[in-house]
Each structure stands twice: as C-alpha cells, then as structure tokens.
Amino acid sequence: MTQQAPFAVEVPATTANVGVGFDCLGLALDLWARFTFETASETAIDGCPERFRGRDNLVWTSYVDTCHRLHEEPLALHVTIESPIPLSGGLGSSSACVVAGIIAAQVLHSGAMDAARALDIACELEGHPDNVAPALLGGLVSSFVDGKRTQTLRLDVADGVRMVAIAPPYEVRTADARKVMPHEVPLETVVWQTGRAIAAVHALEVGNLDLFSRAARDRLHEPYRAPLIEDYAPLRRCALAAGAAAYLISGSGSTMLAVCAGEEVAARVERTVRCMAEGHLDGLWTRVLPVSPTGALVGEA
How many distinct structural domains can be found in the chain? Predict the structure, then answer.
C-alpha cells in the first residue's frame, strides 16, 4: 500500500454507440461524477441512494476485483459518491462507478492511475469497452478487444458540437435491450452500417453535422430498441423540429441525445423539449452537454 490520504476520482458521463457505432464508439461528456476514497476502520458507502450502499455497490466490487488482480488485500474504505449522472440508463453511470473503483485500487496499492491497465480491467468487468474507454480517455473513442487487450483510437470532437441529453424518468434494462436485437443481419445492413460509421466519426471530428445527420442512421440496434422507450417518437420529432441535426439512443437507453451545431441551437432544442414535456412527462431530465476532451482524473479530496 502506498497511499492512505483521502483522494478523489472524477469520471465523466459517457454515451455509447453514437448512433451507428454499435458497441464500438463512445463519447465522454462534460458531466462529472466524483468519488472520494478514505481508508477507514470499516467499509461505508454514502452519497448515493440507500439501495446502492451495500457490498454489491459497483465502486466497491470493482475496487475489490482490481485488488485481486493486483494481488493486494482490499482495505476498508469510506467511499462518498457524488454523481449527477441519471440512473435511468444510457449515460454511463455504472461505467463511471466501475472506472472509479479500478482507479482507487491502482492509487491505493500501486501509487498511481494506469489508464491502459485500467481499461483492460474495466473491459473484463464490463464485457465491452464502449463506455469505459471514453470514461478513461475522454473525447470520441473507437475500441475493439483483441484477446485480452483493448485497442483504442481516440479522437477530438469539433468544439462547436453539443449534445442535448434527454432522460425520461424510467429505465430500459440493458438485458431487455439486448433481447430485442436480431441475432443475424443481412449483408446489405453491414455495408450500410460500416460506411456510415466511418463517415460519422469524421463528421464529429471536423464538426460537419450535415454529414453526421446523413450518416447517423442506424439499422443495427435503434429500430429495435426505440419501441422500449415509450416517449422516443414524440421527443425525437420535437428535437429535430427545433433544429437538432440528429437524434440518437444513448447506449441502450432510456437516455437519448439530440446532436446540435452550437450552444444556441442546443439551448433551443433543450428548452423546446422541456416545454413539450411539461404536464405530459413528469421527471424528464434534460441537459446541454459539450463533449469532454479529458477522461478520468485523480485529485485531492
């Protein structure tokens, strides 16, 4: 053990798939969860809803799993979670917890964060890199797993791109979202998806949202998952009518993203969606979010 002083790990919210990049593309968003760690006489977790304060908390289980990989004995910790990331799903709230627990183990037992190793461990725990890679690296990340190593390509997104996050007050379980996916797809769908995925990445990098609007028309998962989000269709129509360039399901939902050119358009889309929902959809959460160029950070508590 090399450190016992309290410290904090900050992890950005993330969105996976980015439309046509199913299980491959992810974005870090400028909305941050903060996790404070302090050695203690017995383990305690606070700052989160009561149902998440047990030993099955993802921060704690990820910390313990990483300790085992480091051949270290887990310490009793006081963990405080301050997270504005909606729990309804789609903005990487669980991935943020996993990443925080892994980094805590590295800091406490190895002395520093190792992003590359953290990513490999996170992919083993999560099963896929689409959220954890941008959570650790920031920006737009394309990932694939080669054996036990995660290969990533990180890109910066043009400054003017804004995401309007739209989270209804209900969840879509990832297991349910996986069940509705087809087990096989036609060759023409693969060709459609591949070309558009490459174009979508370039469009975000250079800020060409006209191109992104044409490229981000997914055929692999969104047509099957949209019916699981009860308010998908009216919210999509509203956002596009207000000027959004594209409308995406974030991860497996229920959060959705309206992709906008600039702060002014994004503010108008967010305001319009929120006004439309008043009196019809209580508890709708909306936020204008830039892409975060940085991933997880370690600092003072």
Answer: 2
Known binder of ligand: residue 91? yes
For residues 42 and 94, membership in a common domain is answered with yes
Flag whether 41 is marked binding.
Answer: no
Q: Does the residue 2 lie in any domain? A: no
295 assigned binding-site residue? no
What are the φ/ψ torsions at residue 77 (nearest 5 degrees)?
-130, 145
Q: Could you tell me which residue, 129 or 3, shows the higher pLDDT? A: 129
Q: At what angle do helices 232-241 and 263-277 cross, to 10 degrees?
A: 140
Q: Is 250 annotated as a binding residue?
A: no
Q: Is 89 annotated as a binding residue?
A: yes
94 known ligand binder: yes
Domain range for residue 74?
7-155+293-300
Q: Whole-prediction pTM value? A: 0.94
Same structural domain, 182 and 103:
no
- Dmax of the chain from CA atoms? 59
Contact 131, 27 (CB under 8 A): no
93 is in an annotated binding site: yes
pLDDT tens readout for residues 278-297: 988 999 999 999 999 999 99
The reply, when asked if residue 139 is annotated as ligand binding, is: no
Per-residue pLDDT tens digits for 84-128: 999 888 999 999 999 999 999 999 999 999 999 999 999 999 888
Flag whether 215 is marked binding.
no
- What are the tens digits of pLDDT across the range 47-62? 988 888 988 999 999 9
Q: Looking at the structure, tell me whether residues 174 and 279 fall in a common domain.
A: yes
- Asked whether residue 293 is marked as a ligand-binding residue, the answer is no
* CATH code of the domain containing 242: 3.30.70.890
**CA-CA distance, 36 to 51, in Å (whole number)?**
19
62 in a labelled binding site? no
